[in-house]
Amino acid sequence: MLIKEYRIINNCTESEYQVAQLYAVAMASQQETGGGEGVEVLKNEPYEKENGEKGQYTYKVYHLASRMPSFVKAIAPTGSLDLYEEAWNAYPYCKTVLTNGWMKENFSLVYETLHVDQSRGELENALNLPADQLAKREVVMMDIANDKLDSPKDYIPEEDPTTYHSEKSGRGPLNTPDWKKTCEPVMTCYKVTFIEFKWFGLQSKVESFIARTVRNMLQKFHRQLFCWTDRWYGMTMDDIRKLEEQTKLDLDKARAMGEKKGEATD
C-alpha cells in the first residue's frame, strides 16, 4: 500500500471552497463523459451516521475502460474496469472510497480530506493518522500554479493560474514563486490517499501509476477550480444542488448519445 498526503493551497476561503469544489466536480464530470463512458451518478442524498456525523452521500460509477493503461487492460476481462465511488461529504471533512467489482478486496483507493481555513500547508498531521500510517506516509506539497502538468496536452491557456485574473473577486494571477505564502484569502486541502493494488508482479507498478494519475488529476482539477472563480463565486449551496440535478441528467444523456472523451494513459 502507498500512503500519500497531498497538501493543496488555494486562494479562497474554506467556505468558498465547498461551493467551488462541487461546481468544479460537476463541470469536470461533463468534460469526461460521452460515448458510453464517463460518470454515472446513482445517488446524491443527505446522510446521517449513528455517531451524529451529517453530510451528503454520493454513489457514482466511472465507466473509463478505454482510458486505462494497456498493461491493466491486458489482464482485465471485458467489462471489468468500472470503478465504484462512495463519498461521505461532511464538510470540512470528507471521505471517498473507490473500488472495483472484479478486483474486490485486492484494490481500493481511499481519500480522506480535511479542508482548513487560513492554512498554508503547515499542519503536520491534520487528519490525525496513527503512527504506523505516518511512518509510511509521503507528503506531497503541491503548487497549482507552478508545478508542471503530466503532459503538455493537459495545458489549457484559459486554465492557467499564472495568467488568470478574477473580475468578481479580484484574485489572481498567481504569478509569483511565493504566492502560497502571500495570497489572501487562503485555505489548504489536506488529502491523504491510501492506494492498494494486490497483484503479484504488478502491485508496485500499478500503485505508482495510480499515484501519478491522482496527482495529475488533483493538479488539473485545482487549476480549473481557481480559473473558474468567476463562474462559482457568489453561488449558494442551493444553487449547487440544482446544478447537480441538472448535471446528472446531462451526464446520462451524454453517456448514451455523446462522443467518447479522454485518452488512454500508459
UniProtKB/TrEMBL annotation:
InterPro entries to which the protein is assigned, alphabetical: PI_transfer, PI_transfer_N, START-like_dom_sf
Start and end residues of each stretch annotated as Disordered: 155-177
GO molecular function: phosphatidylcholine binding; phosphatidylcholine transporter activity; phosphatidylinositol binding; phosphatidylinositol transfer activity
Domain Phosphatidylinositol transfer protein N-terminal: 1-248
UniProt GO cellular component terms: cell periphery; cytoplasm
Protein name: Phosphatidylinositol transfer protein N-terminal domain-containing protein
Taxonomic source organism: Bifiguratus adelaidae
